Amino acid sequence: MKKSVSKKRVAFLEHLEDFRGYSDLTIKSYDEAIKEALRYVEIFEEDDKIIINLMPYRIKIAKLNPKSISKKLSAIRGFVEFLNDNEMSVFLKADESIKVAKTLPKPISHKHISEALQHADEYETLIVVMLYSLGLRISELAALKLSDISSEWIRVLGKGDKHRDVPLLKSTKKLIDDYLTKNSPKIFLFEANDERLSQNTLRYRVNKVFKRVGLKVSPHQLRHSYATELLNSSASIADVSELLGHSSMATTQIYTKLGSALKQQNYNKAHPLCGDE
After folding, report:
1. 219-232 and 199-211 are packed helices; what angle lies between their axes, rounded to 10 degrees?
2. Does the pLDDT at position 277 exceed 50?
3. Which positions are annotated as active-site residues?
């Protein structure tokens, strides 16, 4: 029984890549979690259903932090959902949720981004500026087609194959135009040998830019920076949520906590009475 379930793993990973647009790193983490779980879970058949008892695996990973446990269980739930959607009747036992405290994203200051760009070439500058000025996920940047770019807007294909339109700054459009005069991509904005660049290649270029100024920065932090700058400049949560492609405003609201923390810091520095405490 365990072998028949395990055989579906590869098909599930292909589904994540082809239909869900997950990054290579996310797919790898899902793969590792599922393979690990299959070594410990109990799988048996009962009332024409395949029962997967997670308890032995949960005992194995119990010492990990709640966030790590939650990620592993999320991968397994996604796998089971895929099995149920593909003619297998599967039920999970011992599948209680793990409470994970929401952590604030760590945006990069505009000052640090500007400093890093001073040491970037034109190609690297375009990648960083597009992530920072459009709030894109790295997967969305990799999938961006020339046909998605107009003079004032970019049409982004986000999670769940949902499209959204994001305003394009004139300065960013100029960077794109300058790039296109020196390069001749056919379909995707970022290509090599007539194939679109991978997310890992783009991620590496971002890491390289910031490493030159002694910073470790991920593409997703630039997306956080985009959202934080907008909210700190009084943009509405509804608008920012739409620009980020969030399915719920609740996801966007975590940035408001960060904005409040920054406002408190500014208040403490600015108000004359704060120095007396």
Report:
1. 70
2. no
3. 137, 159, 220, 223, 246, 255
